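Posting here for the record, re: flavin mononucleotide.
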Amino acid sequence: MATTHSNRKNEHLSLATKFWRDQENPVIGPGFDAVRWVPGPLKNSAVADVQTTTQILGADFTWPFYIEAMTGGSSASTKVNADLATVAQKTGLAMAVGSQSVALKDSSQVESYRVVRQNHPEGFLIANLGADHPIQNVQAAIDMIDANAIELHVNLGQELAMAEGDRRFYWIDNLATVIAKSSVPVIIKEVGFGMGPDLLKQLSALKPAAINVGGANGTNFAQIEQRRDRQNENPLDLSPFGLSTVESLLAGQKAAINSPLIATGGIQTINDVVTALILGAKTTSSAGHFLQVLMTESPSALQKEITNWQQALPELMTLLGAKTVADLSQVPRLYRADLQNFSDQL
Ligand SMILES: Cc1cc2nc3c(=O)[nH]c(=O)nc-3n(C[C@H](O)[C@H](O)[C@H](O)COP(=O)(O)O)c2cc1C
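Prediction output follows.
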């Protein structure tokens, strides 16, 4: 029988697909189109010389994008995870699974996560839990999928938007303990509300392996939770809250932190990936867009989408005079007035 927790997983999948970048969602801050790439001097170059590899989490990622955490914990999600992992395996991408807390409580759900390791045996896989989980749970989640890294989500906005969500957030000391004791690199991540400079500085001081800024204008959990809450019992309106992904990346520059940044939130084209890398992200990841292609089209359509990105990336890097992903952070750029205004106010 499906549990409440499993039902929530299924509702997230269907609502995230149905309302992916819905016109009615509030737009929070400037998006990727607020950054333009300025042509630089000609260089002796060839597309074949470009290296798309990026170093993060103690590994070399062949591509600076991966499939971000979405699901697991229900029978519908087993199929989605299986399909995503097969596409990740065929395209050489890393992949994160959705929160594993349901499988820590109900062992019958473990399979919905393990299928990812089965289908992507050599892949770089990222486990996922909330920031309140003790180190024992973190280790169990890592072991469940033989993970290479773990993400801990700091999703205050999502929890408050959920009628049944947490209302106690004693996270900071626990994050410090988990980072100190985890057997694999730890990422701290937002899920779509972004991060400002003070939060980034605070999290960076905990010395995680990376911080995922998880900015707005992609999957919008405030809207998703509102649509799940059919009785509309939660009066919270979060529309003024949050930063877009590009704003969060500028906040990262301003904060001048040492932690490598991962950009997630509304990334749906290879151009968005390039812009995020120009703004200093070490790598990027996408959830909603990949899910949308998978669910409304097919696994082979998602594979094609990713191979298109893989073909375009070295060409775009050549255009921008970047031989490596790190070179992209030097590309001259122009900010639209609203983004420049944000930058000035920081
Ligand atoms: C259906 C769905 C379920 C998600 N579940 C999780 C989760 O369990 N844990 C987590 O850290 N993030 C979760 N996310 C958030 C994504 O990992 C990502 O941070 C967020 O969706 C922003 O990226 P996007 O705009 O590319 O979707 C989920 C996203 C979607 C679409």
